[in-house]
Design goal:
Distance between the termini: 48 Å
Strand content: under 5%
Order of helices and strands: EHHHEEHHHHHHHHHEEHHH
């Protein structure tokens, strides 16, 4: 069986107008396949994208800022993220947020509302961030897999043993899994994986939370303070500043999911209106995230104090019970498997749409072959999709093995993309769509919000650069062990 089409969401529906057996599957107002997503599936996508394993490093971030600034920064960025996500949700359709023309990607939204050079800058920031995140997730997932092996080693031989293990074999295992999952055609088919990943994130966050409570209640009183790590005791004055910058950046970027918001919204059915469902999903996603962030961050700081490790599950803030540590790290790995797909699907869609428009007559790019799969039915295999997505996963795995400190690059990319994608473009598009008078009260405070977040991005960028320099100084090219 063959059909000359890429997967449904990459085509102009008019191209199918004369093909009855395909056309009957398109019932939405834009002629595309009927969208079936709800605020529940969108919430799962958001939680999968936002609650990464970084939730377990928030105890370290709170330790750098202290009891006052730490929770305050967490709450501030939760509000900023939710507010700007509601502005962005109203831009999915243009010019009217309910009846206007659909925009299928973040770049389409910016092009429809701002156009010109800003459209190109948006693409550079968005896809650069997505590529960096997928490489970083490969590294992080392998560290969690290694932690399972090390946990068993510590349990068997004692906590004093080094138990060093190479990350590379586990990166290869992760890549093999992603090669298979990357053949999921598009975002519309990812709901089951996102729901599974969201459940995993709740599981390991709850385990980390429970272990922190147990440690804090165990009688050991860790040293904490209102201002965090103490200058002259824990760190030098310059280290205090740089680490505070990094902590603010970590918290700010831990909330960001704007890079995939429009793609998530494009999975929602049109009744109720997509912007209303997306705002509800954003409220659920951000509030759930904030609850776990505050609990894990604050209780983790209470348990470990100013000596809080960067990640108290993979960094072995806990050793026992080893089976529970193993289970938590398996949950992290499974979550990252799903999160990888959430972040790479927009990349896949962008490249495949561009190639189809560039070479519309190329059979290798456009032809799909139907394969009967038992218990599933007919699955359409596109050879270009198979080859290109497999190559992408392999390249990200190779980059992760070559640069095991790539997470610092991810922080750098995140710092550079946070302000334009999460704050600047949503604010500017809202001002343009609403035809807001210049220098009005709302215009002024939106501009103040945008400029304040720009300062945060620059501060975090400086912290990321400093962290990257430190990683380069201590990096040993031929030592791949964690």
């Amino acid at each position: 069986m063959q059909k000359n089409s890429m997967f449904i969401e990459q085509h102009d529906p008019e191209a199918y107008a004369q093909n009855g057996d395909i056309r009957k599957n398109f019932v939405d107002d834009d002629g595309r396949e009927k969208r079936t997503g709800t605020w529940i599936t969108a919430s799962a996508h958001i939680i999968t994208a936002v609650i990464g394993s970084g939730v377990l490093s928030l105890a370290w971030a709170i330790a750098q800022l202290g009891w006052v600034a730490g929770p305050a920064v967490l709450m501030a960025f939760s509000f900023i993220t939710y507010f700007t996500s509601t502005l962005l949700a109203d831009c999915y359709r243009s010019p009217d947020p309910i009846t206007g023309k659909r925009n299928y990607t973040y770049m389409d939204v910016v092009k429809a509302n701002l156009g010109g050079r800003k459209f190109q800058l948006c693409g550079l920031a968005q896809y650069g961030n997505l590529i960096g995140v997928t490489v970083g997730y490969t590294i992080t997932a392998s560290i969690s897999m290694v932690a399972v092996k090390r946990s068993n080693c510590f349990h068997k031989h004692g906590h004093h043993v080094k138990c060093n293990t190479s990350n590379n074999p586990f990166m290869i295992i992760f890549a093999c899994i992603q090669i298979v999952l990357s053949q999921i055609p598009n975002f519309h088919k990812l709901s089951w994986l996102s729901i599974l990943a969201a459940i995993m994130s709740f599981a390991y966050s709850s385990i980390g939370l429970g272990l922190s409570i147990a440690k804090a209640a165990g009688g050991e009183h860790a040293r904490t303070s209102l201002t965090g790590v103490t200058v002259g005791v824990d760190v030098s004055a310059s280290e205090k500043v740089w680490k505070a910058f990094q902590a603010i950046g970590d918290i700010a970027f831990a909330y960001a999911y704007s890079t995939v918001l429009i793609e998530i919204q494009d999975t929602l059915k049109s009744s109720p209106p997509e912007n209303k469902s997306m705002k509800r999903a954003s409220a659920v996603g951000v509030s759930t995230t904030t609850l776990f962030y505050v609990l894990c961050g604050c209780l983790g700081y209470l348990a470990f104090g100013n000596d809080a490790p960067g990640n108290f599950l993979t960094g072995f803030g806990f050793y026992e019970p080893f089976w529970l540590i193993d289970f938590a790290n398996v949950c992290i790995a499974v979550h990252l498997i799903g999160a990888y797909q959430v972040f790479c699907q927009p990349i896949f869609g962008f490249v495949e749409k561009w190639c189809h428009e560039r070479w519309p007559e190329n059979k290798f790019i456009t032809t799909e072959h139907g394969v009967n799969i038992p218990c599933y039915g007919v699955y359409y295999v596109n050879l270009f999709r198979l080859v290109w997505r497999t190559l992408y996963v392999i390249v990200t795995a190779v980059l992760a093995m070559i640069f095991p400190f790539f997470n610092d690059f991810v922080g750098l990319i995140g710092a550079a993309s946070f302000w334009p994608l999460t704050v600047y473009f949503p604010v500017e598009m809202y001002i343009t769509k609403s035809k807001m008078p210049k220098y009005s009260f709302t215009w002024v405070w939106l501009k103040i919000l945008s400029w304040a977040c720009l300062v945060v991005s620059l501060v975090a960028l400086a912290g990321s650069v400093q962290g990257l320099i430190q990683s380069l100084k201590t990096y040993k090219p031929f030592q791949a062990e964690q």
